[in-house]
Write a structure and sequence with these properties.
This protein is an alpha/beta fold. It is built from seven helices and eleven strands. Strand 9, helix 3 and strand 10 form a beta-alpha-beta unit.
């Protein structure tokens, strides 16, 4: 058993998981605000699982309305050592069929109206390294879990994130395909950026629900089509997470766990006590007390 703590940010329907023991609900208030909903915790063997519905239960928050900072920080405050995102996506390639699992290793950010850093408006500047947004060891563990469960899985690829809440125009969809992207979604950014600033390894289970609107012989994406596939995908995601829970990597070996080591540019003497208090839950090592 891993003895780890895994944070899971789930989409519609993935609010917890059957088979968890010692289940509790946690209403968390962070120094950056209130997360989308309560966090459900429970044990699966020796692994503690933390589930946070990013849209809130009943899907109340559109992608651009989510307080991503509070979501990531709430999981960190409850002890999460790494984060797995479970997301519905549109397929941008013929070979990725609705119902397939994609484990992207790169992200393209096309969002415009989201707070994507903890370091703004508080007089503290930090520049984290983000060349490889997906943690390699966590993705490898996810891939093995997918294989173990028999899921049709595509390893690697690029996820392009748009603001939404509308789906893409046909011209946009074809433009993104010309860039060589594999899937399109609305939630993994700024989620992944904030996880890196929180020094949490991050990886994605992207569940294809449709072909967006580029596919000439398929109907354009609709909510009805997405929901039909999502019901099947939730069961697949739970099976993958069960398998993952028994074989989580050591997060301390990930470069993400040291993301803030040399990233903070502001002189320690210039960081106010108020800013330290706000950032302390993010990284107690750096901001817990004056340096």
């Amino acid at each position: 058993m891993s003895g780890r703590v895994l944070g899971v940010i789930g989409g519609s329907g993935l609010y917890a998981m059957e088979g968890l023991e010692s289940v509790e609900e946690h209403a968390v208030e962070t120094t950056f605000g209130t997360p989308s909903d309560v966090v459900v915790s429970g044990r699966l063997g020796d692994t503690r699982m933390l589930f946070l519905p990013r849209h809130g239960r009943g899907h109340r928050l559109a992608p651009h309305e989510i307080d991503y900072r509070s979501n990531v920080l709430a999981l960190k405050m409850l002890g999460a050592e790494q984060i797995v995102s479970v997301s519905a996506v549109g397929s941008m390639k013929e070979t990725i069929h609705p119902g397939d699992v994609v484990l992207p290793d790169q992200l393209i950010d096309r969002t415009r109206h989201r707070r994507n850093t903890f370091f703004e408006g508080i007089g503290v500047v930090a520049h984290v390294e983000f060349a490889d947004p997906i943690d390699a060891a966590l993705q490898e563990a996810l891939y093995r879990a997918c294989v173990d469960t028999g899921a049709r899985t595509h390893r690697g690829g690029t996820y392009v994130c748009i603001d939404g809440p509308q789906f893409s125009t046909r011209a946009e969809s074809n433009l993104f395909r010309s860039w060589g992207v594999d899937v399109i979604g609305m939630t993994n950014l700024p989620e992944a950026r904030l996880a890196r600033e929180a020094e949490l390894p991050y990886a994605t289970i992207a569940l294809a629900t449709d072909y967006d609107c580029w596919h000439a012989s398929e109907a354009s994406v609709s909510v009805e089509a997405v929901l039909a596939i999502m019901k099947k995908n939730v069961a697949a995601a739970q099976s993958i997470l069960r398998a993952l829970a028994t074989a989580l990597p050591d997060p301390s070996a990930s470069p993400a766990s040291r993301a803030l080591e040399h990233a903070v540019m502001t002189a320690p003497s210039m960081i106010s006590e108020a800013s330290r208090a706000k950032l302390a839950p993010l990284c107690p090592r750096k901001f817990g007390s004056p340096q």
